[in-house]
Every structure is written in structure tokens, then in C-alpha cells.
């Protein structure tokens, strides 16, 4: 589908919902572009787990998801974070639809490693027909990173990975991974551009590490899947670090 921009909102989602953020989305819509939002909610989930005295266990950047953790994750994403985001959009005059895995099984997935990670999943399929219908009717789909297996079991899926797969399936022209830093840093410099071919070297040299790793892995997968460029940035109106398949020197 042409002229699609997928945005993954991360960190404290409400921090992204600034006047400049909505101005940028309005500008894109005036240009005829269609916008899809994928939201995370890790901050809010951890906060709720601590309140309920449920231990937070992170392994390789993924939240180990027990049956209890899964219930809290569902409650926070569908009951707290998504309504907050959709309400902000509606207040700014946008037509939006909040979606989760139970809406026509929009995200079908499978367990990543049930024994070690519990109900953590990966995306196998995205219902692009539903998304395309909403985009054609000028709605902005706002998707929670939850999936369902073919047998109806709920999955907790990394929001970067969901955004990447949605962008890939919709053949998006751009994917924005919003984070709390303005891009990828090397030798105290924020990189303007980064080729997918350079990423393995930067990982090996441990220039890229921690929370940036899953973002760059998602970026590489999206580019390989046909997305033209991926932006890692902390503000929608700033390009940040642009990841593409070009051969560039960094």
C-alpha cells in the first residue's frame, strides 16, 4: 500500500503526544500519506507490576511473561495505554480506531520460547485487509503489541517487532521507531544515516548495545522486508538516524 508511514511509540507514550507530534501527523495527512501507530507500554506495565508486587524479569530485552504477567500486560495495554493514546488523538480531531489481537485476530503469532520466556511471542501474520480498509476510510489504526496463536492463546510481543512487521506487510515507505534518544550514537556523534551493512560491525564493536539492539534488528528486518527507510529518533519532526540499504560510510 503506497504512502504509508508506521510509527512505533515507545517509552512513556504520553511524552510523545506533543503539539509538534500532532502537527507532523496532520502535515503528512494533508500530503495524502496514511499513518499507522503501534504503541508499547513497558513503563506502565512495570509500574503496575511493582504496585501489585509481581516481580519484573527481563531477559535479552524481553519481559518474561508468566500467566499473571500476561493478565497485567493485557489490562495495562488495552485498558490504560491504548485508551489514553486514542483519547489524545480524538481531542486533536483525528479519526482513530484502537486495535488489539482480539479485533479480527489482527496479529497472529507463535511462542518465541515458551519454557524460558513464557507467553512472549513473535509475529507470523498481520491482517492487512482490516488495516487497509481503515486507512482507506481515513482512520488511524492504533495497535497494541499483543498477538493470538492460531489456537487462541494470547501473546506478549515486542512493540518494535510488531511495528516492523506491520510496516513490512503494508509495504510502508517509512517506519519511525520513537525512543528516548535522538538516534544512534558513534564516537559521541549522532549518526544522520546508517546502512544495514554497517550494523553487524557496530554490534561487534559494542558501539550498539542495550535497548538499541532490538530497534536496529527490527530496522534491518523492515528494510529487508521492503520498507524504504527506518528512522530512529526521539521526535517525529526530526529525522534522527535514518537506516537504509545504501552503502554509506559512518
Automatic annotation (TrEMBL):
Positions with a binding annotation for substrate: 41-42, 63, 156
Main localization of the protein described in the UniProt heading: cytoplasm
Keyword Kinase: yes
Catalytic activity: N-acetyl-L-glutamate + ATP = N-acetyl-L-glutamyl 5-phosphate + ADP
Enzyme class: transferase
Annotated site (Transition state stabilizer): 8, 215
Localization in the cell: Cytoplasm
One term of GO molecular function: kinase activity
Highest taxon above the source species: Bacteria
Biochemical pathway: Amino-acid biosynthesis; L-arginine biosynthesis; N(2)-acetyl-L-ornithine from L-glutamate: step 2/4
Keyword annotations of the record: Amino-acid biosynthesis, Arginine biosynthesis, ATP-binding, Cytoplasm, Kinase, Nucleotide-binding, Transferase
UniProt domain Aspartate/glutamate/uridylate kinase: residue ranges: 3-234
SUPFAM superfamilies: Carbamate kinase-like
HAMAP family: ArgB (MF_00082)
Role summary: Catalyzes the ATP-dependent phosphorylation of N-acetyl-L-glutamate.
Family in the record: Belongs to the acetylglutamate kinase family. ArgB subfamily.
The protein, known as: Acetylglutamate kinase
Provenance organism: Enterococcus silesiacus
Gene, per the UniProt record: argB
Amino acid at each position: 500500500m503506497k504512502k504509508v508511514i508506521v510509527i512505533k511509540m515507545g517509552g512513556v507514550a504520553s511524552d510523545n503526544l506533543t503539539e509538534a507530534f500532532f502537527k507532523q501527523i496532520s502535515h503528512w495527512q494533508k500530503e495524502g500519506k496514511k499513518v499507522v501507530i503501534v504503541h508499547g507500554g513497558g513503563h506502565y506495565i512495570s509500574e503496575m507490576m511493582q504496585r501489585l508486587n509481581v516481580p519484573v524479569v527481563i531477559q535479552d530485552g524481553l519481559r518474561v511473561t508468566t500467566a499473571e504477567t500476561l493478565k497485567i500486560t493485557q489490562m495495562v495495554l488495552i485498558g490504560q495505554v491504548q485508551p489514553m493514546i486514542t483519547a489524545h488523538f480524538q481531542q486533536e480531531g483525528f479519526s482513530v480506531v484502537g486495535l488489539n489481537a482480539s479485533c479480527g485476530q489482527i496479529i497472529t503469532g507463535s511462542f518465541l520460547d515458551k519454557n524460558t520466556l513464557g507467553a512472549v511471542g513473535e509475529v507470523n501474520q498481520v491482517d492487512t485487509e482490516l488495516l487497509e480498509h481503515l486507512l482507506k476510510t481515513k482512520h488511524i489504526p492504533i495497535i497494541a503489541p499483543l498477538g493470538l496463536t492460531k489456537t487462541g492463546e494470547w501473546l506478549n510481543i515486542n512493540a518494535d517487532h510488531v511495528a516492523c512487521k506491520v510496516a513490512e506487510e503494508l509495504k510502508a515507505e517509512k517506519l519511525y521507531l520513537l525512543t528516548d534518544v535522538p538516534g544512534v550514537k558513534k564516537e559521541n556523534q549522532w549518526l544522520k544515516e546508517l546502512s544495514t551493512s554497517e550494523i553487524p560491525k557496530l554490534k561487534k564493536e559494542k558501539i550498539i548495545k542495550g535497548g538499541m539492539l532490538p530497534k536496529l534488528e527490527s530496522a534491518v528486518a523492515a528494510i529487508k522486508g521492503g520498507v524504504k527507510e527506518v528512522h530512529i529518533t526521539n521526535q517525529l519532526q526530526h529525522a534522527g538516524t535514518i537506516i537504509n540499504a545504501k552503502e554509506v560510510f559512518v
